[in-house]
Design brief:
Layout: H1 2-18, E1 20-29, E2 35-36, E3 41-44, E4 50-52, E5 58-64, E6 66-73, E7 80-86, E8 91-93, E9 96-98, H2 119-128, E10 133-137, H3 138-143, H4 149-153, E11 159-161, E12 167-169, E13 177-181, E14 184-185, E15 206-212, E16 226-232, E17 239-249, E18 256-260, H5 266-269, H6 294-300, E19 307-311, E20 315-327, E21 333-359, E22 362-389, E23 393-415, E24 425-447, E25 454-480, E26 483-486, E27 494-516, E28 523-547, E29 554-557, H7 562-570, E30 574-578, E31 585-603, E32 607-624, E33 635-655, E34 658-669, E35 680-682, E36 688-690, E37 698-709, E38 716-727, E39 730-736, E40 742-748, E41 751-764, E42 775-789, E43 793-795, E44 801-803, E45 810-811, E46 819-830, E47 836-846, E48 849-852, E49 861-863, E50 867-876, E51 881-888, E52 895-899, E53 913-917, E54 922-930
Parallel strand pairs: 1-8, 1-9, 13-16, 36-40
Antiparallel strand pairs: 1-2, 1-5, 3-4, 3-6, 6-7, 10-15, 11-12, 13-14, 15-16, 17-20, 17-54, 18-19, 20-21, 21-22, 22-23, 23-24, 24-25, 25-26, 25-27, 26-29, 27-28, 28-30, 28-31, 31-32, 32-33, 33-34, 34-37, 35-36, 37-38, 38-41, 39-40, 41-42, 42-45, 42-46, 43-44, 46-47, 47-50, 48-49, 49-52, 50-51, ...
Length: 931
C-alpha cells in the first residue's frame, strides 16, 4: 500500500513539473540609454504571482502552462503589459524597456534608494513632499552630461555657479548656503568658502542631491539661500567602470604657460610639491626672528623664484568605479563601492585689474594692470562605502578623501601706486594652494517594530581638514623685454607660509520617528538631535630678505632669478630672516548643538501640515593676539547664542495633479570662516583681505508660497513667490589702510529685505506635436528685489566703533542678482537597438549684482551679467561603452567687474572697468567602459 502511494505521488509530481514552464528576461530603462532596470516589478496579471528584477535587471518566473498577461512596472514609469503563452517544459524569453511616457504621478511610497536616482521618481517625490525641495539624481546628471555635484546643482531652479566663488542660490552667495553629506554636517576644506567646493565630488559616487529651499527643524538653522544634502551612492549592483577623458579649452591649452620650476616635473604633475615648499624645519613651531646663515639660506628652500615657460598640454581625467552586492541569509545583503577619480586642469586668465583712489579732482586709478594668471590644478577624490541591509536594520560606513592642489603664477603688468610715469611695473606672485580633506561616516537605521512604524535613525562622522599656502612669494620691478630690473627691498622676495588646520571636526545625529493616526498611519512625529564641533588653528608666518650689501638694483631674466639670488646669498650680500609677529597664530572653536521636534499631519484628504521647533545653541570662540609679545595671552571673542527656530510647511492638494504650498520659518546665517577670522591676508600689490572677528550672525525670517502642476510624470509647472527679512546681514566691502592701499573686509549692515518670484517648467514637446516626442524643454527663472538699510556706525576688524563710511545709506543686498535664468533642451534618439543617444543644450544667465559695497565716496563694484551656453552629447555605444562629447561656454563672454558711476565724485579715467577675463570655449571627450 505504501509503495503504491509513493509511486502515485511521484507520478503526480512529474506530471506537475511537466506542466510548468518558465518566463525570463531583462528589463531596461528607456530614459537612461537602455541601461538595465533593477528592482522593477514583474507580475502575472490577475494573480499574486510576481517577482522583482535583480540588480542586473533580470527576472525569472515559473508558472503552469497557459496563456498569461505579464505586467511590467516601475515607480514613476508607465506600466506595460504583454500576452505570452507558456508551454510545458519551455522557457519564454521576454525582454522589455520601460519609459516615463505619459504616466500620471500617483501616491506611491518610495522604498528603494535606486529609484530616487530617476528623474520621474524625483518629480514624484517633489510632488509628495510637504517642504519646498528640489532634487537632481544620477539619471538627470548623466543625461545632462554633468561630471560633478556643483555642475549638477546648477540645473536646479534659482542656482548659478559663479566662477571660483561657488554656488549662488536665489541670487545669494556662498555664505548663505549650508552642506550636509548623508544628513550629517560636513566641514569646508577651504576657509575662504562656506562649504567645500562641490566640483570635487564626481557624480559617479552620488545617488541624489537634495536642495532644501525652505527650512525644516531637522536641518541646521544656518539657512538662508539653500541647504544641499548629498546622498552618496550605495552600490546597489555589481559593476566595474573605467573612464578616461580629455579637454581642450581655447586660449588656454596649447598656449604659452608659466609654471613654478619646482612644479615642472612628475611631482608637480601629480600635485606633490607641497613638502618641497614647507616652512624650513629649523624655524620650529614658534617664531623667533631667526636669521639664516648663507648656507642655511641655500639649503633650506627647495623652491625658488624661477618659472618655466612651456605650452599648456591638454587637460586629462581618469576614474575607476567598482561595486559589488552580495545576498545573505534571510533576505539580508551586503554591498561595497570603491571609487577613485583624478584630473588636472591648465587655465590662463588675462584681463585688466584696477582699483581707484579718490583724488580732489575725482576718482583715478591707483593701480592699472594687465593681469595674467596661469593656474595648474590637480584634484583627487576617493570613496570607500560599505553597506549592510536586513529586514529591520541598515548600516553604512563611508570614507572619502579629497585632495586638491593649485599652482599659480600671477603677473600684474602696468603701473602701480599712482606712478603713471612708469607703466612697465611687473608684480609676480608664485603661489601653491593645497587642501586635504578626510571624512569618515557611520550611519544606521533600525526599525523598532516589525511594521516599521517606529524607527531610529543615527549617524556620526569624524573629519580632518588642512588648507595650506606654503612658500607664497612675490617680487616686483621694471620689465624690459625678457629682463626685469629689481631690488632686494620693500616687499620684494618675501615668503609667506599660511597653514590652517582642523584636526577635529565631529558631527552627529539621532532621530526617533513614529507613524500614527489610525490604520493608515498617515501622520508622523520626529524627535531628534544633531550637532557639530570644530577646533581649528592657523599659522601665518613671514620670511623676509635683509639687504646687507647687495646692489640697490640689478637686472636679471624675469623667469630665471635664482642663480643671481643664490650668488648674493652665498656672498652674504643679503640673507633671509623670519619676520613673523605675535599675530601669526589664531584659533577658532565652533559648536552647534540642537534638539528638534517635528510633526506631520494629514487631514481632510487634501491637507498636509509639517510644523516643528528647533532649539540650537551656537558658539564661535575666536582667540588671537595683538601686536606685541609672542607670550602675551590670547584675546578672546565669544559669540554664543541660543536660537529658537520655528518652522511651518503646509501643502494643499488642489487636484490630483496640482499642489499649493506655503512655508515660513526663522533661521540664522554664520559668516564664512575667513570673513570673521582675525588675520590680514596680504597680496603682492599691497592689497589685502582682513577678517572681522566682531561680526555677528544674521537673523533671517523666511516665507514662501508656491503652486505646482504635474501634468505627467515628465512634466511640471511651478510658480512661487518668496520673501526674506535679514537682520545684521553680512556683506563684503572695501576700506583703505594708512598707506591708502585697498583692504577687502566684511561688515554687518542694519537690515535687508528681499522678495521675489520663481517660475519653472518641464515640457514634453510631444504636447505640441507628436513628431517632437523625443524632445523636452526645461526652463526656470528667479526674479528678486532687495533693499538694505545701512547702520550709522560699524564695528571694524580691530574692534573700534566708527561712523559708517558707506557711500549709500540705502542700497541693494551685496551678492544678490535681480534675476537669473536656466534652461535646457533635450533630444533623445537611437542609431540602433543598442546605440542610444541624448543631446542637451543648456543655457544660463544671471543679472547684474553688487560684488563689493561702495565706501569713501566710491560707488559699489558690480559684477556684470554672464551668459553660459553648453552642449552635451551622451551616447551609449553598446552594453559596455559610453561616450560623452561636450562643448561648454560656447558664447565665451567677457566676465566683467566695474565701478558704478553713482559716487560722490566723477571718474576721471577712460574706463570704470575694475577687472575682466574670458574663460575660453571648452571641448571635452570622455569614454567609459563597463565590465
Amino acid at each position: 500500500m505504501k509503495f503504491k502511494l509513493i509511486v502515485t505521488f511521484l507520478l503526480l509530481t512529474a506530471i506537475g513539473f511537466a506542466q510548468k514552464g518558465t518566463i525570463t528576461g531583462t528589463l531596461t530603462d528607456k530614459d537612461l540609454n537602455n541601461e538595465t532596470l533593477p528592482f522593477a516589478n514583474v507580475v502575472i496579471k490577475g494573480t499574486t504571482i510576481g517577482v522583482t528584477t535583480d540588480e542586473t535587471g533580470k527576472y525569472t518566473i515559473s508558472v503552469d502552462t497557459g496563456i498569461y498577461m505579464i505586467q511590467f512596472s516601475f515607480l514613476g514609469y508607465e506600466s506595460i503589459e504583454e500576452k505570452v503563452e507558456v508551454k510545458a517544459g519551455e522557457t519564454v524569453t521576454l525582454n522589455k524597456a520601460l519609459g516615463s511616457g505619459s504616466y500620471q504621478l500617483k501616491d506611491v511610497v518610495i522604498q528603494n534608494t535606486t529609484s530616487r536616482e530617476k528623474e520621474t521618481a524625483l518629480l514624484l517625490e517633489q510632488k509628495k513632499a510637504v517642504e519646498i525641495k528640489q532634487s537632481i539624481g544620477a539619471q538627470e546628471m548623466s543625461r545632462k552630461g554633468v561630471s560633478d555635484v556643483e555642475e549638477g546643482l546648477t540645473k536646479i531652479t534659482g542656482i548659478t555657479k559663479v566662477g571660483s566663488r561657488g554656488l549662488f542660490v536665489r541670487g545669494l552667495e556662498d555664505r548663505y548656503n549650508n552642506l550636509l553629506i548623508n544628513d550629517l554636517a560636513a566641514p569646508t576644506n577651504n576657509p575662504f568658502k562656506k562649504i567645500i567646493p562641490l566640483d570635487l565630488f564626481p557624480t559617479d559616487i552620488v545617488g541624489v542631491i537634495d536642495v532644501y529651499k525652505t527650512f525644516n527643524p531637522n536641518i541646521y538653522g544656518d539657512f538662508a539661500g539653500g541647504t544641499f544634502n548629498i546622498a552618496t551612492s550605495k552600490g546597489t549592483k555589481s559593476i566595474t567602470k573605467i573612464s578616461i577623458g580629455t579637454n581642450f579649452t581655447t586660449d588656454n591649452n596649447m598656449k604659452d604657460f608659466l609654471i613654478s620650476k619646482d612644479a615642472d616635473g612628475s611631482k608637480g604633475f601629480f600635485g606633490l610639491t607641497g613638502d618641497d615648499r614647507a616652512l624650513p624645519g629649523l624655524l620650529g613651531g614658534k617664531p623667533a626672528s631667526y636669521t639664516f646663515t648663507p648656507d642655511q639660506s641655500l639649503q633650506s628652500f627647495k623652491s625658488g623664484f624661477d618659472v618655466t615657460k612651456t605650452k599648456a598640454p591638454l587637460n586629462m581625467s581618469f576614474g575607476v568605479l567598482h561595486s559589488e552586492k552580495f545576498k545573505l541569509k534571510n533576505e539580508a545583503s551586503f554591498s561595497y563601492l570603491l571609487s577613485l577619480n583624478a584630473d588636472n586642469n591648465y587655465s590662463v586668465r588675462k584681463g585688466v585689474e584696477r582699483n581707484f583712489n579718490n583724488n580732489p579732482s575725482g576718482f583715478v586709478y591707483r593701480n592699472d594692470f594687465i593681469n595674467t594668471e596661469y593656474r595648474y590644478k590637480t584634484s583627487t577624490s576617493t570613496l570607500i562605502g560599505l553597506n549592510y541591509s536586513a529586514d529591520r536594520i541598515k548600516l553604512t560606513w563611508n570614507n572619502f578623501y579629497l585632495r586638491t592642489t593649485e599652482n599659480l603664477i600671477k603677473d600684474q603688468f602696468g603701473y602701480a601706486d599712482l606712478t603713471a610715469s612708469n607703466n612697465k611695473v611687473l608684480i609676480r606672485t608664485n603661489q601653491l594652494d593645497q587642501s586635504d580633506y578626510f571624512n569618515s561616516q557611520l550611519l544606521g537605521e533600525y526599525a523598532l517594530t516589525k511594521d516599521k512604524n517606529q524607527m531610529i535613525k543615527t549617524g556620526g562622522s569624524f573629519a580632518k581638514t588642512s588648507y595650506q599656502q606654503p612658500d607664497r612669494k612675490f617680487f616686483s620691478g621694471t620689465l624690459d623685454g625678457d629682463n626685469i630690473q629689481t631690488s632686494i627691498a620693500g616687499n620684494n622676495f618675501i615668503k609667506q607660509y599660511l597653514d590652517i588646520k582642523s584636526d577635529i571636526y565631529l558631527s552627529g545625529m539621532l532621530e526617533y520617528s513614529l507613524k500614527f493616526g489610525g490604520q493608515d498611519k498617515k501622520n508622523k512625529l520626529a524627535i531628534g538631535y544633531n550637532g557639530s564641533a570644530s577646533l581649528m588653528q592657523s599659522s601665518y608666518r613671514f620670511i623676509t630678505p635683509v639687504n646687507n650689501f647687495a646692489p640697490n638694483s640689478f637686472t636679471v631674466p624675469v623667469n630665471a632669478l635664482d642663480s643671481q639670488l643664490n650668488e648674493y646669498l652665498s656672498q652674504n650680500a643679503f640673507s633671509f630672516r623670519e619676520s613673523s609677529n605675535a599675530t601669526y597664530k589664531a584659533k577658532l572653536m565652533e559648536l552647534a548643538n540642537s534638539g528638534y521636534a517635528n510633526v506631520l499631519f494629514k487631514f481632510a484628504e487634501k491637507w498636509e501640515v509639517n510644523g516643528g521647533l528647533r532649539a540650537e545653541n551656537t558658539l564661535r570662540e575666536t582667540k588671537y593676539r595683538l601686536q606685541g609679545s609672542f607670550d602675551d595671552p590670547f584675546q578672546k571673542i565669544n559669540r554664543n547664542k541660543l536660537y529658537v527656530l520655528p518652522s511651518l510647511n503646509a501643502k494643499y492638494e488642489v487636484t490630483e495633479k496640482a499642489n499649493l504650498r506655503f512655508a515660513t520659518s526663522q533661521t540664522y546665517t554664520r559668516p564664512v570662516i575667513m570673513e570673521a577670522y582675525p588675520i590680514e591676508y596680504i597680496n603682492a600689490d599691497g592689497t589685502s583681505t582682513r577678517g572681522n572677528p566682531f561680526l555677528v550672525n544674521s537673523d533671517n525670517f523666511n516665507v514662501d508660497l508656491k503652486y505646482e502642476l504635474f501634468p505627467t510624470a515628465k512634466e511640471m509647472l511651478a510658480v512661487g513667490v518668496f520673501g526674506k527679512s535679514i537682520k545684521n546681514p553680512i556683506e563684503r566691502t572695501f576700506i583703505a589702510n594708512a598707506a591708502n592701499a585697498t583692504i577687502t573686509t566684511y561688515l554687518n549692515s542694519d537690515k535687508a529685505n528681499l522678495y521675489g518670484a520663481e517660475i519653472e517648467f518641464l515640457l514634453d514637446l510631444a504636447r505640441i506635436n507628436k513628431s517632437l516626442s523625443n524632445f523636452s524643454f526645461g526652463f526656470n527663472t528667479s526674479l528678486m528685489k532687495t533693499q538694505v538699510d545701512v547702520k550709522p556706525t560699524i564695528t571694524n576688524p580691530d574692534g573700534s566703533v566708527t561712523n559708517s563710511i558707506e557711500t549709500h545709506k540705502s542700497r541693494e543686498l551685496q551678492g544678490a542678482s535681480k534675476w537669473l535664468v536656466n534652461s535646457d533642451l533635450k533630444y533623445q534618439f537611437n542609431f540602433s537597438e543598442k546605440w542610444s543617444n541624448t543631446v542637451s543644450l543648456v543655457y544660463s544667465v544671471f543679472g547684474k549684482r553688487i560684488y563689493a559695497v561702495g565706501t569713501g565716496g566710491l560707488d559699489h563694484i558690480y559684477e556684470l551679467p554672464v551668459s553660459q551656453l553648453d552642449f552635451v552629447w551622451s551616447s551609449k555605444l553598446s552594453d559596455h561603452f559610453d561616450l560623452k562629447l561636450a562643448a561648454d561656454n560656447l558664447l565665451n563672454p567677457d566676465r566683467k567687474f566695474e565701478l558704478g558711476t553713482d559716487g560722490t565724485s566723477p571718474i576721471n579715467e577712460p574706463s570704470n572697468l575694475i577687472s575682466n577675463y574670458k574663460k575660453g570655449v571648452g571641448f571635452s571627450l570622455n569614454l567609459s567602459y563597463t565590465f
